[in-house]
Amino acid sequence: DAKRSGGRQVVLSHPDQLQAAVDRSAMDRRVRAAAADDDFELVYQPLVDMRDGRVVSAEALLRWPGSGVTPTDFVPRLEESGLIIGVGSQVLVRAVEQAARWWAEGRSTGISVNLSSIQLGDAELVERVRTVLADTGLPPERLTLEVTEGLLLRDLDAAVDLLAQLRRTGVHVALDDFGTGYSSLAYLHRLPIDVLKVDQTFVRAAVTSERDQVVLRAIVALGRDLGLTVVAEGVQETSQVELLLSLGCTVAQGFLLASPTRPEDVPVSVELPRLLDLTGSDVAELAG
Ligand code: C2E
Ligand code: MG
Ligand code: MG
Ligand code: MG
C-alpha cells in the first residue's frame, strides 16, 4: 500500500487517482516525443475589422495533427515539462516568417503569437524576439505578442518591466482572455500593453442578458479609455457583431468571421454577415 511505504513516494490510494497519474505520464511521454519529432503545426485565425471585413492580423495557433489532442490539453503539458520554451520559440520563428511572407506580398496582415507565462520567465525571450525580427525584416509593429494575466500578477513590477522591454523592440503586446484570470482593475492601467482581448465568455453572455451586456460595455469602455485596441474573442453570431460595433469595439475573432486555417488560406478580407439593425453609415458612426 502506497501510504505505508513512506519516504518521498507519492501517495496514490484511490484507483482513479492512480489511473489519472498513469494517463498523465503516458500523455507526457507522447508530448515529449511530439516535441522532439517536431510534430506540431500552426494554423492561423484571422482577426477581422468588423467595419469592412479586413483581416488585420492572424493568430498563430498550435495543432498536433493526428493526435486527437487539443491545445487546451497539450499546452499545459508542454508548460509543466518546460518544453514550451523550445516549442514556443519555434512558434515565434515560424509565425513571424509567415508574416514576413505576407509583408513581402504587399499584404497588410499582421501576426499574433501566444506566449505562455513560462516563456515570460525565459531570460532569452527579448533577444529571441529581436533576432527573429532582424532575421526576417518584419516591421516590428506587425507582430503582437499575446500574454495572459496568469503570472503577471505574481510580480507586477517584473511583469511591467518585461512587457516594456518587449515593447521597446517595437512589437505590440496584447492581454489575452481578459476577464477570466485574476483581472484587477487596480493594475490594468499599469501594464504596458496595446491590445485588450476580451474573453469569449463576456461576448457570449452579453447578447442574452442585459446585465451581462453592462459588463461587456464597461470592459470595452475601459479598454478604449486606456487607449487600447479592444478585440472581442469567440464571435459566433451576427447579433454579437452588431452589439460590439455599437459599443465601439471594431476588431473581433470568431468562427462566424473566420476559422483557423492553413496559412495559404488566410484571406485578405472576409465577407461580413448582413447586419440586421445597422446601415453602413451607422456602423461607421457607432464605431467612431
Ligand atoms: P487563445 O489564445 O485564447 O486562442 C483562441 C482560442 O479560441 C483558439 O483555441 C481558437 O480556435 C478559439 N476560437 C476562436 N474563435 C472561436 C469561436 O468563435 N468559438 C469558440 N468556441 N472558440 C473560438 P485553440 O486553438 O484550441 O487554442 C486554445 C488555447 O491554447 C489558446 O487560447 C492558447 O491559450 C493556447 N495556445 C494555442 N496555441 C498556442 C501557442 O502557440 N502557444 C501558447 N503558449 N499557447 C497556445
Ligand atoms: Mg491568444
Ligand atoms: Mg484568447
Ligand atoms: Mg480564450
TrEMBL record:
The domain of life is Bacteria
Sorted alphabetically, the keyword list is: Membrane, Transmembrane, Transmembrane helix
Q: Where is the EAL domain?
A: 24-274
| Protein name (record) | Bifunctional diguanylate cyclase/phosphodiesterase
Measured against the full-length protein, the chain present covers 615 to 902 of 917
